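Hi support team,

I submitted a single chain yesterday and got back a structure, but I'm not sure I'm reading the token output correctly. Could someone confirm the output below corresponds to the sequence I sent? I've pasted both exactly as they appear in my results page.

Thanks,
R.
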Amino acid sequence: MEPASKLDQNHRLSIKELPYIIRWKDHRCKRCGQCTAVCPVRAIEPSVKLRRVVFSEGPLPEPSVVRKIYHVIEQVTDIDRACTGCGACALVCPNDAIEPEYNPSNKFLHYKNKGGEGYKRGGRRNDPYISTLDRLKFTRISMLTDPALDAGRHEFRVRTLLGRILPSDKLPLIEKEGKLTIDEENDRFIPPVREIFPIMIGSMSVGALSPPMWEGLAMGVAYLNEVEGLPVVMCTGEGGVPPRLLKSRFLKYMIIQIASGYFGWDEIVHAIPHMVEDPAAIEIKYGQGAKPGDGGLLMAQKVLRLIASIRGVPQFVDLASPPTHQTKYSIEEAVAKMIQSMSMAWGFRVPVYPKISGTKTARSVLNNLARNPYAAALSIDGEDGGTGAAYNVSMDKMGHPIASNIRECYLDLVKQGKQNELPLIAAGGVGKKGNLAANAAALIMLGASAVSIGKYIMQATANCFGDEYNRCNICNTGKCPRGITTQDPKLYRRLDSDKVAERLVEVFKAANVELKKIFAPMGRSTELPIGMSDGLSVDDKAIADRLEISYAC
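Hi R., thanks for writing in. Yes, this is the structure output for that exact sequence:
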């Protein structure tokens, strides 16, 4: 029988099995230790190696053997400490002596399911294909306008409406002295409606995001509204709201989300009488694009004192939301009762809408909402949406692409004659390749009234390392090297909330200009071209037929 040490060595993984291989240059390294200090998963560590060196010297040299001790940086082969490729080590190295390199022949998923538990991760779908959104082109140019019109000088206000829009024959208007006025004697229910920028920040909770990141986004949204005049709104995600925000005037820029875990809602409900402003809307979460049919999860290592106090739970416990709202037994009952109760809580002054995963059943939910006068919109989260913690198999193998899902829902509304009444909000993979305005414009022309973004904002405002090659993507573990999705003060102190706010403002101002640049040559200068699919073309016949747009090559 072989010694136990050799048997043990035979069952170890090699570096080649890992998704990223650390390239370390001995001659450049000064052994300062900065790289090992910043590695969020401890994939590298200082080590001592004994080397056998043969050399000869003197007038009649004879080979001699000398053993020397060398200090090295070594990559560990423990699968739980596998390098995620974030590159934090390369960022801090003063001599460019170390960097991770993607290993396309890795067998990471073969070994990561230790303990009989499927691999969970954050980030986004590991699929670097060119999405349908990035293949769409805008090919309808109106010669009644100047196609070269400078978007910076164009007066087109890029706005959309969030809320149920009554048809003209049901508006409480009467003609009085040759003018249209509100019929004050009419007691008909008038749905609350908000005018917003068509790109909104999606649901990322306090807890999923670090305090500086969430605060930076909130400050940026307030600046955009009050200084730049762009009515951008932000969804709080599940997990409550910081108490001081609930009683501030800035709450009107926030969409409060209620999900099946109801975390933080005790504080929200008790704060309603003391709110100086109503929230922009209430979002009822039934599903996430990254993990349809599954509930939310905030892992224990992220539930520190601040998060525990906001959510009203003990520290260091996993916060799992059920897959469904446990008090409801059908989608009809869930949608009707939740929308009704949330509308009543704010005196029917606030738009209330559900958020669902992109699936083939989305149209069933839509048809129920179309008959509900209190439903303000429907948000559909496609398969490319990011999340804080999801099983890898859910993120990569489940869900529905947003382009075709939003298109079929819009066409369903067209058949009912309600396409201008119930707004659709599209999410999931918007700006995946950086083309934020183009992707948003394409979804609007497919039928969406607004689009929701999350991962793009993390990348654009806080330099998130994650990508579709499973680089970094440890958002769920609380070890984010950028300080974006962590509750560890040692990590989130690396993030400057002021810089996050500055970048957010720059991103939305640029998107505003680019949307004008796309829409103005199409002859649209007064309203969004929602459902204007004749302005779109694609070079793939199957996609063209599926979306019912023109084929151009």
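A quick pointer for reading it: The mean pLDDT is 90. Let us know if anything else looks off.

Best,
Support desk
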